Amino acid sequence: MSERKRRAGADAAAGGSTSKKPRGASAAASYAQSLRSKLRPDASILASLRALASAASKSKPAAASSAGAKALSEDDPTSASSNYIVVADQDTTSVTSRINRLVLSVARSILAGRGFSFAVPSRASSNQVYLPDLDRIVLLRRESARPFANVATARKATVTARVLSLVHAVLRRGIHVTKRDLFYTDVKLFGDQSQSDAILDDVSCMLGCTRSSLHVVASEKGVVVGRLIFADDGDVIDCTRMGVGGKAIPPNIDRVSGIESDALFILLVEKDAAFMRLAEDRFYNRFPCIILTAKGQPDVATRLFLRRLKVELKLPVLALVDSDPYGLKILSVYMCGSKNMSYDSANLTTPDIKWLGVRPSDLDKYRVPEQCRLPMTDHDIKVGKEMLEEDFVKQNEGWVKELETMLRTKQKAEIQALSSFGFQYLTEVYLPLKLQQEDWI
Amino acid sequence: MSERKRRAGADAAAGGSTSKKPRGASAAASYAQSLRSKLRPDASILASLRALASAASKSKPAAASSAGAKALSEDDPTSASSNYIVVADQDTTSVTSRINRLVLSVARSILAGRGFSFAVPSRASSNQVYLPDLDRIVLLRRESARPFANVATARKATVTARVLSLVHAVLRRGIHVTKRDLFYTDVKLFGDQSQSDAILDDVSCMLGCTRSSLHVVASEKGVVVGRLIFADDGDVIDCTRMGVGGKAIPPNIDRVSGIESDALFILLVEKDAAFMRLAEDRFYNRFPCIILTAKGQPDVATRLFLRRLKVELKLPVLALVDSDPYGLKILSVYMCGSKNMSYDSANLTTPDIKWLGVRPSDLDKYRVPEQCRLPMTDHDIKVGKEMLEEDFVKQNEGWVKELETMLRTKQKAEIQALSSFGFQYLTEVYLPLKLQQEDWI
């Protein structure tokens, strides 16, 4: 980072108090001003962040990697002793040999006169449960046979065999493809993409490998900036030198290596507008952090990337989301996984994310003007009530309280609502004050 | 680029003929194989690309930058002699002084007893026309008064004054904000975001400045890789070293500088799946090019970025889109602009993009299997017929023919349909052959 930029950052922070305030909300603005005066010097805030980071690095590794992935024996993923299915990241050699063994066992079954059949784990929603011990949604172990010599399953057995052979070909060439690519290799057989997608998930469960181990990747949406260096397909990327646009998070996590960082925390941001503000203000230079966003609903690539960062760097993760039921839902996808990817929850989820803001209680605490809050719709309230029933919310008393506050006041607010105190209020006052007060739950 | 990667690229190209072919479409596959044998050595293809690039660099500068932006006198943008409105990129000092002059003239009008009023260009759709000379959609010059002392316009005049003051504040701080940020600074006045957005477009026309000159930016979606070096907010980015993920295109084009490239062409890709294939195969090492995508409908940031590349590097632009009416529509947005941003078409559009593929005639030429083509829906056909009536399509005889072919066969196909010949068919056969045959229109 150049000295010029450092100074620009410091000036912005110091000169902030002379910034223009909207006239419409002058009482709130003067309160915002008073909050600014509460800010202690950065050195003091940094000290508390260092304590947080060091506590996170000493804590036990993420539950998922210890209890989940390691419960599987490397040799036979389908005979794990646990009663739920967890898939794990595997290298190309391992996946290829698993496919070979699977196909050999089918061949032996045919030769022995027992016919051509696959044993496929059931991914029905009745089979998806939340495990409080692991703090995520997992898939219970229950397999069904998929024989070729049965009218009901002949087609599915054929498609399964075809997908296995395609995955094998992709791995052999050492490339990555999308689900759409896979579908188009045999449209006649697959019919429509939902069928090849579903079988691909089956194959992932059968082999005990993550979808990214199969080299079938999702499209990327996420971006990252901040105190992070990593290699994307061998190219070393310094995320403090990625300008305002940031580095696109790579679709294929297995090509990411050499992760290094001197950050004290990871700041997970829901929306790209807030990300842009943080990137332009080079927030990570004032408070060493890694800033990432999936621009709304988290995609698989961003979730995998966040998890890798968390596991390798052992940094605390602080989340900045909208104060509405969807902000919380996004948090839950990062933390506990989505239901239809439950078999892969160990690799996709990042436990122990702290909810930094914007929290329903912040609206009053930071006196967000009434006109910047929005009334919750009936649908919002319904979703909010459903969230209250979710096990992952119930586990955290603070979250329950916040959600109850939201439902009582029937108000929601976006991160952007903080702009009502000035465009840089987010980076100059709100976040520093939150960090200073260790105000996360 | 490391020697290892160069070699990997060469190996992939050489070893391609042994790749696994789907069994389902064996006749088509063997034809695909025969196409591969038609490929001349890369050196010969590169020679024709060099000729293309050198022709492009000698051609006159893009129509927009000569006829459009320069028609405006720097001193008073609203008194340009032409009868249509064109906004231009302006630096912060120029925009600030334009705002100052505008506000001073309003103040003088008040002091002279003529009251408080703005002269605002009409952005009604009846005012948006396609100019064949310029090959883009422009806004005719027709202004209406927006007096404060009139019940019908008092509110709008107030909002206009407020937006002008907010833009002034943003420019003074040297930062960038989103439309959403702008809205949230005064929710009480703006009511809903569509109102502040509309007035922002008015202000852009009134000042004769692009929206990005006002430092109000759109969110970014696009990514870029390949033979390009540029600085994003002072950070130098080498796009050959951005792995598979690529570099996110920055939201604020005015922070982009130092554009350098040894590419022979720019490859504009509609979808991110194709982008990923090209990035992973490091296509730009075999054929020096810059590859970019907006992942579907082009956003403002990507359009601005493409235009900057085209104007500064004077490279030919080749487009790879789906063979359906929307692929063509996307091309039209890049080339001629969208109707609701017509006043800014000079800065957002990139004229002279060549349609490389996937074109309706390619489906038979490359024998894309029937099952990988999709029947056009009634809506597709309606959109296709509308496109035939568009002036920008009519200008290009080749495009009319292709569109007629599409409507006659009633078939469409995605770029991904080429995967039916093998995952790397796109990068190893289809595109090299297209380039070799100079098969663009």
Automatic annotation (TrEMBL), chains A, B:
Its cofactor is Mg(2+). It is found in: Nucleus. Its main location: nucleus. It holds the Pfam family TP6A_N. Residues 265-435 form the Topoisomerase 6 subunit A/Spo11 TOPRIM domain. One of its GO terms (biological process) is meiotic DNA double-strand break formation. Keywords: DNA-binding, Isomerase, Magnesium, Metal-binding, Nucleotide-binding, Nucleus, Topoisomerase. InterPro entries: Spo11/TopoVI_A, Spo11/TopoVI_A_N, Spo11/TopoVI_A_sf, TopoVI_A, TOPRIM_Topo6A/Spo11, WH-like_DNA-bd_sf. It catalyses: ATP-dependent breakage, passage and rejoining of double-stranded DNA. Transmembrane segments: none annotated. The active site is at Y184 (o-(5'-phospho-dna)-tyrosine intermediate), Y184 (nucleophile). One of its GO terms (molecular function) is DNA topoisomerase type II (double strand cut, ATP-hydrolyzing) activity. GO terms for cellular component: DNA topoisomerase type II (double strand cut, ATP-hydrolyzing) complex; nuclear chromosome. Its EC number is 5.6.2.2. It is an enzyme of class 5 (isomerase). Residues 1-32 are annotated as: Disordered. Residues 155-216 form the Spo11/DNA topoisomerase VI subunit A N-terminal domain. Mg(2+) binds at E270, D322. SUPFAM superfamilies: DNA topoisomerase IV, alpha subunit. Homodimer. Heterotetramer of two TOP6A and two TOP6B subunits. Belongs to the TOP6A family. Component of the DNA topoisomerase VI involved in chromatin organization and progression of endoreduplication cycles. Relaxes both positive and negative superturns and exhibits a strong decatenase activity. This is DNA topoisomerase 6 subunit A. It comes from Triticum aestivum (Wheat). The lineage of its organism: Eukaryota, Viridiplantae, Streptophyta, Embryophyta, Tracheophyta.
